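Tokens in:
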């Protein structure tokens, strides 16, 4: 039932706490404050102990913030007039760590540690990301085990159906079915799919019994027109000639999918049984993939159990199964926690809901209060299920629970609140009948006063280049907001009005590409900005290196782990003297371990090794940022160790949990507040990252973009009468795809609800009147006429806007000092690895082959690259000019393209995107010469036979890696270098370096190489020789290293080998070269190091 919760009325609060409850809290309505007030009353009025209250929230950051705010609340109450309140509050302050505040993963991890027998886990488990195990056992199964389970003819059909045949290499399987098996493991195991191999065998054999003659006769005698009959018969004939896989594809794409919107034809397909074959075909493919998934999961689970490993999602599933199957375990958890508050419940998945429901709603003594806002459910890609929210809401209400709604927004001005009330109440904005928008209110009085600024601004864009128009408008409007002294907003600190600052402004985007484009527009107009990327603290390289430290302490005596630690940032040494360091460092690490506790051990170690000095030597100019990251991580981990009373093994696992659970769409808000908002710069961030933040002025650039349709979906849900059905499939029918599409539209609208409600004073929204895509801008274009009478809205026609400013090309460096707040992201895959082409060691920063080839998709560039200027290109036509700008562009194309596509039309699109990125458009016909010149050069390059009959077009993307950074170590000095391309062919490894510079008159590639690059080539060769010897099993330089190519891109032609310099230096020559370098450094260190750095600089 609906309940009016009044936090200022003690009886209202206590009555609410007597029942299970739901709190629906719109954006900015004080959700966290409400939780704290309820907790306060539980402790002071109902004498509930802190350890009996479970609070589960979405992020680790949120758990820390809640604990801090609870501490502050009770610290204030230590000065209360009541002695009882003062004493209770002092006790809470002194025992603040008794509160059970967790993320879902840390809560389940705690239960597993406390109840391993009841849950069925090993005592001590190492936490892993099991993606690599799934991949390993997937290929093991389809290469070996499957042949023990099925007859040869059935296996042939199975492989055909899943696309695993001679024409479809393993990469296709890896990209599709393996992707499915990895992504659906969690929900798949929750719904406990059971697939029998007998079902597969019978389904395949039944599927092949189609009667084509009967089908054709029925089509010819049907009422549909002759033209359609003929077209359908032609496609039926294609079915006759197809194998089982193509049969399903033709049904899906050319028949059912093609005619899906033509009701009379679909009815015919149903009458003649073709529609049944379509659905059976889709189901057959799903049946096979699900059976393979089941077998892979079984193999992976056995491996994990045998090796004392546990994956992150396993924790939740283990607890769910134990709660479901063991009354004893469930009762123990119920006795431990009287109350539970589940925050951000709109982002809860079905497994988590079942856990909380069985613990807290199956017992009359327990109470469950869920807090959320269905309008802010934006994590569908993480299995968050809004249908589960509605199911839980109905379930709690049926059990006499209370529904309280927070409808007073403290974040925004009254006029802005009225403005977006009008938008969200309009024409079924949320596209979901379960979300009935109710107007929200402003507190009275609302102190957020302002002058000369409209709450909601609609910018009507013209038809062409809308993104560019809106970018230019944003730049012009920001200039106006900053320069116009009549525009004022409220300064809470000084209780008066002030001018707008850059830091008051946020631009919300839907992708990093959009952020980069906007940042360039702002830069060229002298507007300082920062794009806060989501490479988060616990996903950084620094977090991984601290993990190596904890991993050694958790297993002291393991020399392999010690060697890995010695190759981190914490030590300055080479691989050659590791063995000398081992005994010394064992003693140091043991001494730190013995003299400190987990809550200060990392800091003690940092002080012992003099972290600032070590990092200063290794990182030079950027060392302060790296040190801050290390200290920040150490502080957070030590606080967790103290709060949760963790030993070092548990702290190691806790760090892994943090690395996993800190999702890429969340922003490190502490970092944002401390280092972003304190700077006077415009903030650019994704809408997902903005959740939980607020800004005086917001531009919703993401509203221009529709729903991205490039990610394959494997899961959706349907809310039934009293339960939610969860559907997990590899392939969906057209009808099911439409349902998924509707779910995406609904979430897209909720995403922009989040964007619009970030604003405190003003919000700017683009409007497109002539458009049919799914963007919010198009929706506004169709509905704007219903809003124009409101005094809170302003419509700006872009063709009449007089604040737009042109680019000022020379002001970038002087006026805009951008800082990209980011970390060097390292994936979990770099912690637990299986045998691959490359395994990562700290000798270099070489990354694994990660298949970063891009054909038709947009790709990201570094924001600090230089771009060629149009005038420079035109003046140098018809050929591409020399210099670093053109060289950088050519390198970027070579890095991103798939060489096998050079002879196809797709390469045109890739080259054009790169040229446009470098500010080259095709308005001037002469510029087409550049594209043709580049394409011609690349055609020659990839078709040139460089090794016997091998050319680059034959190179698999799995056997190449572009842009490899490495550290070249000489006599206690690290020098950074970068290799353009490393590839593998016939079990030999080759280096390629592209040269795009123009040669001097009478200069040849050979003379240019001897003069400028031979030392560089030997350094590259030595670095790769040492690396491959250490990391490739049984590597022999003579047998397995193929040599190094220097390819002069402007010189090569199809008729001769001009422009290709090849060397394969003997091993003794490379070792002698390294010895000579060390001698040179000893005799003149500073000069030699400078020369080496100059040699390794990537400049043309």
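Residues out:
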């Amino acid at each position: 039932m609906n309940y009016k919760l009044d936090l200022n009325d003690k009886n209202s609060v206590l009555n609410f706490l007597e029942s299970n409850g739901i709190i629906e809290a719109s954006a900015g309505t004080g959700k966290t404050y409400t939780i704290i007030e309820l907790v306060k009353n539980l402790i002071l009025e109902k004498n509930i102990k802190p350890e009996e209250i479970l609070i589960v929230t979405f992020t680790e950051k949120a758990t820390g913030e809640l604990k801090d705010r609870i501490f502050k609340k009770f610290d204030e109450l230590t000065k209360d007039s009541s002695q009882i309140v003062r004493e209770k509050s002092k006790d809470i302050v002194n025992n603040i760590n008794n509160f059970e505040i967790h993320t879902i993963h840390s809560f389940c991890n705690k239960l597993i540690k406390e109840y391993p027998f009841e849950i069925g886990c090993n005592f001590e488990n190492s936490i892993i990301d099991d993606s690599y195990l799934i991949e390993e056992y997937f290929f093991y199964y389809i290469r070996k085990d499957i042949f023990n389970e099925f007859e040869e003819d059935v296996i042939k059909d199975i492989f055909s159906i899943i696309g695993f045949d001679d024409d479809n290499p393993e990469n296709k399987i890896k990209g599709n079915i393996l992707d499915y098996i990895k992504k659906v493991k969690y929900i798949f195991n929750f719904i406990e799919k059971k697939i029998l191999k007998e079902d597969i065998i019978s389904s395949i054999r039944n599927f092949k019994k189609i009667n084509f003659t009967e089908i054709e006769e029925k089509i010819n005698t049907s009422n549909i027109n002759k033209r359609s009959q003929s077209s359908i018969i032609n496609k039926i004939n294609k079915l006759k000639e197809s194998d089982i896989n193509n049969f399903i594809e033709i049904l899906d794409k050319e028949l059912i999918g093609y005619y899906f919107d033509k009701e009379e034809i679909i009815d015919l397909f149903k009458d003649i049984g073709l529609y049944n074959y379509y659905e059976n075909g889709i189901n057959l493919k799903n049946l096979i993939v699900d059976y393979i998934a089941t077998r892979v999961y079984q193999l992976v689970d056995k491996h994990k159990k045998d090796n004392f490993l546990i994956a992150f999602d396993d924790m939740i599933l283990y607890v769910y199964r134990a709660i479901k199957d063991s009354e004893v375990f469930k009762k123990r958890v119920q006795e431990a926690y009287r109350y539970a508050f589940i925050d951000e419940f709109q982002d809860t998945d079905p497994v988590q809901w079942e856990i909380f429901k069985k613990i807290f709603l199956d017992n009359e003594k327990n109470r469950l209060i869920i807090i959320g806002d269905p309008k802010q459910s934006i994590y569908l890609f993480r299995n968050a299920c809004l249908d589960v929210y509605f199911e839980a809401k109905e379930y709690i209400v049926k059990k006499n629970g209370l529904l309280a709604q927070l409808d007073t927004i403290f974040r925004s001005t009254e006029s802005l609140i009225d403005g977006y009330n009008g938008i969200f109440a309009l024409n079924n904005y949320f596209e979901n009948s379960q979300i009935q928008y109710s107007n929200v209110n402003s507190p009275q009085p609302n102190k957020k006063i302002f002058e000369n600024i409209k709450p909601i601004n609609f910018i009507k864009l013209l038809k062409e280049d809308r993104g560019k128009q809106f970018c230019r408008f944003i730049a012009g409007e920001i200039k106006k907001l900053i320069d116009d002294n009549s525009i004022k907003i409220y300064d809470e600190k000084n209780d008066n009005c002030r001018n707008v600052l850059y830091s008051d402004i946020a631009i919300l985007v839907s992708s990093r590409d959009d952020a980069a484009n906007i940042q360039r527009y702002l830069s060229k107009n002298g507007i300082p900005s920062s794009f806060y990327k989501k490479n988060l603290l616990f996903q950084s390289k620094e977090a991984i290196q601290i993990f190596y430290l904890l991993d050694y302490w958790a297993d002291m005596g393991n020399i392999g782990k010690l060697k890995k630690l010695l190759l981190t940032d914490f030590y300055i040494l080479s691989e050659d003297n590791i063995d000398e360091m081992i005994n010394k460092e064992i003693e140091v690490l043991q001494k730190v371990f013995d003299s400190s506790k987990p809550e200060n051990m990392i800091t003690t170690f940092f002080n012992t090794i003099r972290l600032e000095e070590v990092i200063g030597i290794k990182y030079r100019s950027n060392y302060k940022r790296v040190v801050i990251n290390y200290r920040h991580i150490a502080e957070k981990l030590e606080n967790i160790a103290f709060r949760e009373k963790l030993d070092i093994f548990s702290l190691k696992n806790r760090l892994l949990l943090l690395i996993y659970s800190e999702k890429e769409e969340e922003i490190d808000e502490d970092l944002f507040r401390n280092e972003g908002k304190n700077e006077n710069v415009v903030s650019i961030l994704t809408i997902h990252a903005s959740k939980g933040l607020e800004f005086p002025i917001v531009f919703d650039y993401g509203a221009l973009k529709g729903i991205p349709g490039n990610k394959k979906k494997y899961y959706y849900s349907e809310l039934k009468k009293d339960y939610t059905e969860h559907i997990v499939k590899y392939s969906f029918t057209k009808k099911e795809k439409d349902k998924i599409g509707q779910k995406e539209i609904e979430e897209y609208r909720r995403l922009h609800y989040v964007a619009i409600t970030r604003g405190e004073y003003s919000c700017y929204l683009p409007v497109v009147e002539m458009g049919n895509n799914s963007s919010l801008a198009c929706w506004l274009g169709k509905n704007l006429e219903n809003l124009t009478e409101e005094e809170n809205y302003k419509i700006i026609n872009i063709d009449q806007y007089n604040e737009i400013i042109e680019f000022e090309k020379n002001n970038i460096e002087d006026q805009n000092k951008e800082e990209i707040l980011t970390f060097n992201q390292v994936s979990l895959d770099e912690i637990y690895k299986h045998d691959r082409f490359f395994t990562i060691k700290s000798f270099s920063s070489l990354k694994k082959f990660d298949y970063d080839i891009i054909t038709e998709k947009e790709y990201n560039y570094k924001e600090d690259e230089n771009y060629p200027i149009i005038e420079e290109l035109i003046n140098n036509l018809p050929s591409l000019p020399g210099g670093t700008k053109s060289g950088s562009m050519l390198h970027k194309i070579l890095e991103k393209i798939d060489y096998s596509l050079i002879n196809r039309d797709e390469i045109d699109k890739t080259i054009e995107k790169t040229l446009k990125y470098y500010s080259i458009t095709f308005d001037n016909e002469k510029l087409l010469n550049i594209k043709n010149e580049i394409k011609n050069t690349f055609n020659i390059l990839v078709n040139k036979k460089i090794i016997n009959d091998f050319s680059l077009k034959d190179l698999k993307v799995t056997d190449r890696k572009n842009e490899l950074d490495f550290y070249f170590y000489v006599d206690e000095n690290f020098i950074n270098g970068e290799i353009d391309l490393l590839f593998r062919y016939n079990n030999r490894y080759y280096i390629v370096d592209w040269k795009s510079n123009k040669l001097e008159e009478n200069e040849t590639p050979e003379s240019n190489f001897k003069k400028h690059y031979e030392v560089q080539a030997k350094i590259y060769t030595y670095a790769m020789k040492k690396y491959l010897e250490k990391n490739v099993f049984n590597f022999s330089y003579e047998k397995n290293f193929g040599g190094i190519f220097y390819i002069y891109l402007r010189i090569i032609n199809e008729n001769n080998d001009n422009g290709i310099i090849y060397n394969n230096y003997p091993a003794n020559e490379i070792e002698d070269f390294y010895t000579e370098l060390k001698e040179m450094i000893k005799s003149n260190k500073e000069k030699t190091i400078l020369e080496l750095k100059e040699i390794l600089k990537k400049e043309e």
